[in-house]
Design a protein that fits this description.
The protein is an alpha/beta fold. The protein has twelve helices and seven strands. It has a domain of 200 residues: LmbE-like (Rossmann fold), CATH 3.40.50. Helices cover 42% and strands 13% of the residues.
Length: 307
């Protein structure tokens, strides 16, 4: 695998900061803003968009501030290409998706498949959460098929208390209030299955989420690391964007409907029996036992379930 050259990646990938500096993208928020601040960590440039894209749209539409972070650059996440060119391509894809979602995005300069739960990476995650002044933090659960996913979960868990400790990463002011930390959904069953504490209907923003996912061409239309010439041959070509979007809709209607059906009880708990049973497409989240504790009613205020 070719190694990435930081000087070439420049503006597309955020480099490791010098000692004492925060690793962050420019913060566009007014300093006196009272809206919610949400940061979603995904292992690769597509994970946060897939798992929380619809909820992110709803938060953004309500004026809240959402940042999606890809903790690795995805430079081996394709069956045909790799290295610098793939990393640049995937960074551009999530930037285009972010415009569709109405959010901020950032890709860290960590090689795909090489993320480790080190002290350095714990500090990177802590700085990002503090810099965003997050009220809500979302990540993978720390048990998953992919080591990068697992270690994102571990790193965010490890940051869950440290974000409030003043002399840990003192170059970035500690948060006075610990955020609410949550996991995005998955289907893994050990050591215990995902248990949603809140589920969000994305029926009203499903088309907009599809427009964002459409931008992630290397993953959705070429299959990413699991793709093949046969996979690509089964997808409408780039010259037929309408055909591609129809194919994509079929894929994601099945996926998001399965999410809603799997977590129907959580939808009913949030929206009530009548509306909860009618939800077609959903995203779901589980409260991490670390971070700030919240009641179900507080979760409804934090998540865009009434907006």
């Amino acid at each position: 695998m070719s190694r990435l050259v930081p000087a070439v990646l420049g503006a597309l990938l955020t480099m490791t900061p010098p000692p004492g500096a925060a690793e962050s993208a420019p913060d566009p928020r007014p300093k006196d803003d009272t809206k919610l601040r949400i940061i979603v960590f995904g292992a690769h440039p597509d994970d946060a968009e897939f798992k929380a894209g619809g909820t992110a749209i709803k938060w953004a539409k309500a004026g809240h501030h959402v940042k999606l972070v890809s903790v690795t650059n995805g430079d081996i996440g394709h069956w045909e290409t790799r290295g610098e060119l793939l990393a640049k391509r995937r960074a551009a894809e999530v930037q285009a998706a972010a415009k569709r979602l109405g959010v901020t995005t950032q890709v860290l300069d960590v090689h795909d498949g090489e993320l480790e739960p080190t002290l350095e990476n714990r500090k990177r995650v802590t700085r990002l959460i503090r810099d965003w002044k997050a009220d809500v933090v979302i990540a993978h659960r720390p048990w998953d098929y992919h080591p990068d996913h697992r270690y994102v979960g571990v790193l965010v868990q490890d940051a869950a208390f440290m974000v409030t400790v003043p002399f840990f990463c003192p170059e970035v002011p500690a948060l006075k209030d610990n955020p609410v930390f949550l996991y995005s959904s998955d289907r893994f069953r050990k050591p215990y299955p995902f248990r949603p504490d809140v589920a969000v209907s994305v029926d009203d923003v499903f088309d907009q989420k599809l427009e964002a996912i459409h931008e992630l061409e290397s993953q959705v239309y070429e299959g990413g690391a699991s793709g093949s010439p046969a996979f690509v041959a089964g997808v409408p070509p780039a010259a037929d964007p309408a055909g591609r979007k129809k194919w994509l809709r079929g894929q994601w209607e099945t996926r998001q409907k399965a999410e809603a059906d799997a977590y129907r009880d959580a939808l009913v708990a949030v929206y009530g029996p009548e509306k909860g049973k009618r939800v077609k497409f959903a995203e779901a989240f589980e409260v991490c036992e670390y971070g700030r504790r919240v009641t179900p009613e507080e979760l409804k205020k934090l998540f865009p379930v009434g907006e």
